[in-house]
Amino acid sequence: MINSTMQDDFPLTITSILEHGTRVFGRSEVITWNGDGTSRRETYAEVGVNAKRLASALTTLGVEAGDRVATLCWNHQEHLEAYYAVPCMGAVLHTLNLRLPAAQLEHIINHAEDKVVIVDASLLPLLAPIASALKSVEAYVLIGSGDTSVLGDVPVHSYADLIASGSPEFVWPELDERSPASMCYTSGTTGDPKGVVYSHRSTYLHALATLATNVTGGTEADRVLVIVPMFHVNAWGIPFSSFLSGSTQLMPGPFLMPDKLVDFVEAEKATLLSAVPTIWAGILQLGEKRDIDLSSVRMGTSGGAAIPRSLLEAMQARHGVRIIQGWGMTETSPVGGMAHPPLEVERGTPEEFDWRLKAGRLVAGVQMRIVDDEGVEQPWDGESVGEIEVRGPWITGAYHLDSAPEKFHDGWLRTGDIGAIDDRGYFSISDRSKDVIKSGGEWISSVELENLLAGAPSVLEAAVIGIPDEKWTERPLACVVLKGDTTPEQLAEYMQGKVASWQIPENWSFVSEVPKTSVGKFDKKVLRARYAAGELDVTRTR
Ligand code: AMP
Question: Which atom of ligand 1 is nearest to the CA of 337?
């Protein structure tokens, strides 16, 4: 008989992340952009003090362990303070997606039973139509100043006043590492939003894992521009990992337009940028209109949706920005894979881009398997396709007050992504299971067609959906936003030889924009509904 001699009961908590960041990297900064060339700066040591002040004030307001404290905020220093204050006091931080329609926002605030809502003054209008329906909210905390009459009779406290009155001597309670720390609802692309509750332990382990050199390799030298919203899966964990690595965090506030972001990169010499493909595409387009200097950027990361090859190549060729794609979900905290190419592959070669177009290489800590329609596990041969299932210490094993048995399979999370994995753990995603186009018994990957079309010189962006077809069950309809002159026939011709000819769409619709979800993904639900309602002008090429 032998036992571990380690201190295995030492809890992995966000409090220890905070303590490390404030003590070891107390001089590192969070810099919030004002959008006009100026910024506000706060050191990590100061974030730590303000987190204590906020926690002390929230305690006075009656917030107890396990209570949900929501934030409806852009990315900025106060949001970062709440990121630490709320979990470290034992409460649960619920980051609200400010792009959700009012009805969904109301639903998730009520479903999570948020007790306090911390809100940016500029976002008060989002609460106006729903405030009277929010049953659990006992107090609001307002960052900035604005007309709070829209909030009804519920008490409103000023964030600045709470920080001033709160005690900097607040003592963090000892917490169980398995206790809930934060929560986030899925963006609901394929159904109602579901609540995912992260624990202290899952947050800690995920933050550590994302610092590995085969993920971001973040260090004290990094100046990370946190473009991904803090309501989108905890900003991919950056607010936490940066306190472990000492990286400076650059917070863009509401200034997410490409020109403002690039101004910020240039002014603060950002080294690491994390964003969804739509943002990268916007930056690339800006570069077609004016000179932009991204020479400080050592790496970009892209996730949330597949990035087109043309975008990866152009960002590198024109601006020297090497974007590494990552894969993840709200349910996976989010990082599950990062597509760093294998060592032997020469940089800048077409082969390297082939590797970088994989969704990712499995990150240490996460297990993956591919399962076919009958539930049979498929080999890691890079070809056998099925649903991707994952499990691990930062993968959700349940949803908040929603049993959703269809999302789990013998302890594995069913991702709803269809893909294949090779013998080195590189996996690719051909589609969401709901987006795959079933044509004549074969599958067509909408993602592959979209990426190909995005590379056509006259195309700004393209989304492909399956539409009913008497003969083939479904056929692809390409909804294309143009930036130059072309015809459906020319686009079909452009695709010849690049995919099997039977996969080339014969249904085309030129649209002014592709509808996007609250986190910037193509909203195919909306496109399908528009098609069904006869609202899309469709041209057939054969
Ligand atoms: P969300 O929970 O809203 O972040 O959505 C998660 C989903 O986004 C995943 O299940 C994928 O379908 C998609 N996704 C995330 N990253 C990628 C990627 N690199 N390539 C393709 N799809 C992705």
Answer: 19
